[in-house]
Specification:
single chain, about 210 residues, mainly alpha, 2 domains, two-stranded parallel sheet, 10 helices, about 55% helix
Length: about 210
């Protein structure tokens, strides 16, 4: 999913063009999903300085893993390759000199949601009660893949991180995960209509993938 990685590049570009002293982001430190690079054989769980970063050695390992996958499946070498390369450059290779709000303020789900919904008219998704990951058109589909093939999704890691921070209990997390991981059928259908592919065939293909648990 290369579409959102260039935010780092354009944030730097705007900072330079406008002569700004600081770039401010509000990423959630509980969003760390180390399992994604774990599927590439990389253990980044010890590196907690920035939740979006990898060590230099692991950046090289990740690049080598990608190259190996390209060789194993030449179908990856297509019109999206340059966009993917730009995304890798933007996310892993350009300097990140940003200030993160939640390095200084605790991220409390209820407080954040009540502020966004009550004061700013935040738009929610009709097919889930969660307000997390609802703005990413791909999330409903790739989390379905993770859940189907690996037995867990981003939602599980998010709730696990909340438990570790003492923000919710394990019982609360299990209840939320059961609700969060329900397939978001409407969002998946919308996504495939948007990119012009057959949602039913895509889901059937995913359902044929051997499970890893």
């Amino acid at each position: 999913m290369a579409g959102d990685k260039q935010l780092w590049y354009y944030a730097n570009m705007l900072k330079d063009e406008m002569g700004l002293a600081r770039t401010l982001f509000s990423m959630n430190p509980l969003e760390r999903t180390d399992f994604k690079v774990g599927f590439c054989g990389i253990d980044e769980s010890f590196h907690k300085e920035h939740h979006y970063e990898l060590t230099f050695a692991n950046k090289l390992r990740l690049g080598a893993f990608y190259m190996g996958q390209f060789l194993l499946n030449p179908a990856y070498i297509n019109a999206s390759l340059m966009d993917s390369a730009f995304a890798y450059f933007s996310y892993y290779l350009i300097p990140k000199d940003f200030t993160l709000i939640f390095d200084y303020l605790p991220w409390r789900e209820h407080e954040v949601e009540s502020t966004l919904l009550g004061q700013y008219g935040w738009e929610t998704s009709p097919d889930t009660k969660s307000t997390w990951r609802i703005g990413d058109g791909t999330a409903a589909f790739y989390n379905y893949i993770y859940l189907k093939v690996a037995g867990f999704s981003e939602n599980d890691t998010f709730r696990s991180n909340q438990i570790r921070e003492g923000l919710i209990t394990r019982r609360e997390a299990i209840e939320k995960i059961y609700e969060d991981n329900q397939p978001r059928v409407a969002s998946i259908a919308w996504y495939f209509d948007t990119i012009g592919l057959d949602a039913v065939e895509a889901v059937k293909t995913i359902n044929r993938v051997p499970i890893r648990y």
